[in-house]
Design goal:
globular, 316 residues, 3-stranded antiparallel sheet, 4-stranded mixed sheet, Rossmann fold, alpha/beta, deoxyadenosine kinase activity, deoxyguanosine kinase activity
Amino acid sequence: MAVIILIGIAVGGTPKPRAPESSPCSPSVPAAVGKSTFLKLLGATFPRWHLVTEPVAQWRKVPAGGSAQVTASVGSANLLQMMYQEPARWSYTFQTFSCISRLKAMLEPAEEGPPQTPPPVRVFERSVFSDRYVFAKNLFEAGHLQPLEWAIYQDWHDFLLRHLGPRAALHGFLYLQARPQTCLERLRRRARQEEGGIQLGYLQQLHAQHEHWLVDRTTEIHFAEARRAPVLVLDVDKDFEHDVAVQGVLMAQVGQGWHRWGGTAQWLLVLSQCHPSATPSARLSLQVEAFVTSLSADTLPSHPDPVGAVGGSGSA
């Protein structure tokens, strides 16, 4: 069974315990890096993979009564907007709810295919690890989570993940890198109401958190499998939504990484929004060639050319 969490990938139903030598993988993603567009591209290229999107709709419509922020007609609150407007008041509430909603999605059993068919790959947006080691951590360092709230959050996070064990484990990370300025431009284009007040400095903070965790490996990670998880870094600073050549390169890199990691492990796609480096075109050509020559038939896309235009203008 394999899992991709976008940021993440999973295969099959509920993850089963693995042999000690297997290497888990998990992904994480910052805001406005283009993950919605990337997910569409991934789904078009690998149609047998199951995509599980981030539960933003749940965060925008949380059942709650007796609050001034609650929409009277529907009896619900936009917790995402409340967190952005009053982070000191709502950060702990939002991070608790978002983490639990991500965990529910990860534990939901996948649809099983016909007998004798490979288990399906599941792709998730972000994970309980990015929730803690990027977003909640950043809110604490910015002073929006009090030390007591941060301690309580980490305590129940530790408890849940340690008791769930293999069911919540991930096997790899796919990290989408783009400069914070690029992400800000994409964020402005998508014009999500709750994000109107987000500034460049906030995106720079999220970028730094992702880099510390996934590239520099300086973030203290409290789970051995997450510490050992391999990371596949993709440069998405270019406008890949409208450039089919860049799309082909990205999908080739994903396919090659999936094959290199065994194609059957649970791993998380991590999308971040910041990185200035560009990959040389010659290297990209080699990666595409490696993808074509090394992947097995079971992991190849349903159509021979992995390049395909992606519709829509949303990015996350």
